[in-house]
Amino acid sequence: MLSETGWEQDSGSSAFRERFEQVRTVVYPGSAEACRDLAAHIRDLVESRAREGRMAVLGLATGSTPVPLYRELIRLHREEGLSFGGVITFNLDEYYGLEPEHPESYRRFMADQLFDHVDLPADQAHLPDGSVPIEEAFASCAAYEEAIVNAGGIDLQILGIGRSGHIGFNEPGSKKDSRTRLIALDRITRRDAAADFLGEEKVPRFAVTMGVGTILEAREIVLLAWGENKAEIVAQAVEGAETEAISASFLQSHPNARFVVDAHAASALTRQRLPWLVGRTTWNKPETRRAVAWLAGLKGKPVLKLVDDEYNETGMGELLTREGSAYDLNIRIFNELQHTITGWPGGKPNADDTNRPEKALPWPKRVLVIAPEPEDDILSMGGTMERLVRQGHELHVLYQTSGSLRVSDDAAAKFASILRMLAEQGSGRSGETGPACGAIWEHQGDYAAAILAEIERKGTFGEPSKNLRLLKALIRRGEARDSCGVLRIPAEAIRFLDLPFYENGRYRRFVPGKEDEDRLGAVLSEIRPDQIYATGHLADPSSVQGICFELLEKALAAMLGEEWLRRLSLWLYRGHQQPLRPYEVEMAVPMSPVQLETKVAAIGRFQTHNSPDNLDGEDNRGLAKAYDRLGLAEYEAIEGFERSRPLGAGAAGDEAISGSGG
Ligand code: GLP
């Protein structure tokens, strides 16, 4: 039953570098490669079962993580004749209280993402029932368990992982022997689902999930994870102790379970983060810096105070033999870290730029800040944007998507009812005197009434019309302009691309296309920036941020021969949930307390979607504190950036894409 793919060969070894890992973990460069192998493995399973005259029983998961797997299975079905006629499926979980036809129900999700595109007979696909009355829930869960047993048990269970460490919906506290049951959703889970449901308050409070015990009975288990947001929880589940606080950690004691992750989701594993602890490393520049900063953190000392013994004790003696002594190494790294700090993110004119993150010329620069959704930019680099404008650069801000999915019906209704009141006054219908242009106001009033009627009619989860999506996009647009205004960025500098993949899609199921690429390409060749700031490089590739970054990479790759690209510096900012660690920062832009206040005020202008965490400035204060602890200057707050690595295949290379004066 072993496949010819890398599937079996990759795993199984308990190499020294994996010695902190308590469960087999296979790291792939990206989700596409991982899903290709896993889909081939599933095909082998289905075919070998068929040869034995038996059904293959698959346990399936929802969320954005398995989407690329399902796309590959659909491809195998269409192009290579893989049949699901001999497959029985059981899904892990379902929201409680949603009708099966609800757009966010997992039944609907599975239909959209897999079932409707393959030949799986409807009566062979099972999901827990989220619509049974509460008094029948227990019996319904027991019947689900029984159906699994009657099918012969699950051959292969696919899992994702929630940021609370859950598998299925087994939230912290779930017992190792728990069975299929009704469960209350954790705060983090509800927050992560808020975008799908257009507001945290609309996310169901309960769900039905297979229990940890149910899952562990599967003969084989594969947990998938992509992107930086999963890195911390993956590391805890793989390297920490088995604990009810992280139900994914229970896979450690399963005889045939593995984690299959991409490089970004693997980035907090010891073998990636602290490779010198698990074998030889290259001791290249970033790794050396990372090691020294890590050691300083471990010892609670500034870099310049580290001594030889401390390096030796922690497996870094080899580094000293290369550098001579701790003293020399400390100074070198201290200087490197010091040189990342600049108050001149666009480069400092008339200054020696040998050791500065950004080159001095050209001056002023054409700078393009690209944000997947409005607010991503302000959250991560509002302070830097303000500086770039103040320092005289020609700043352009480009919003790739409208952000309309972030705007709730309530916000749209609020706008429409104000408009209706205005219209009533303007047309004189309210009996008060208003501007004398009644006819115009009547149109406005009709528009407002139509929007309000639609919101009422479609209910919380009905598909919004193009009209309503447009209104939401414009509300977000207004907020973005307002927010940029606080940072003194003029309205003319802001562009809204409204990429179609977003306008025509929903979270976790976007399908980007050529038109998205072309629109972005057109703006890039029009502006021909000297410097770009972008994000999404470490995100789950099916998230808005991940898709937007890939579009940018493709657009740039298509222009590689062009002259302006040779001058371009491409800087990357990180999302809110995975801020840069000090040793990863290649440009650190400090902020004074007043600058931080201004930035927070700018973030506050996004009113339709904002979390209190966004308004405390703690991310930026945290980075400043980390710099301080390393013995560097003590600032109130810092925004950090990393330089782009060379673009994918056919890229012009590091120098061309991200050349610096240093
Ligand atoms: C939900 C599902 C889980 C899934 C998790 C992560 O909570 N119940 O099964 O693993 O979301 O979702 P995503 O893959 O979108 O990150």
Number of DSSP helices?
Answer: 25
Number of strands: 17
Widest β-sheet, arrangement of strands: 1-10-9-6-2-3-5
Poorly predicted sequence stretches spanning 5 or more consecutive residues:
1-5, 9-13, 648-662
What is the global morphology?
globular
Main β sheet profile:
7 strands, parallel
The hetero compounds bound to this protein are: 2-amino-2-deoxy-6-O-phosphono-alpha-D-glucopyranose
Q: For the terminal residues, how far apart are their CA atoms? A: 54 Å
Strand percentage, roughly?
5-15%
Average pLDDT: 90
- Based on helices, strands and strand pairing, what is the structural class? alpha/beta
What value does the Rg take, in angstroms?
A: 27 Å
The amount of helix comes to: 40-55%
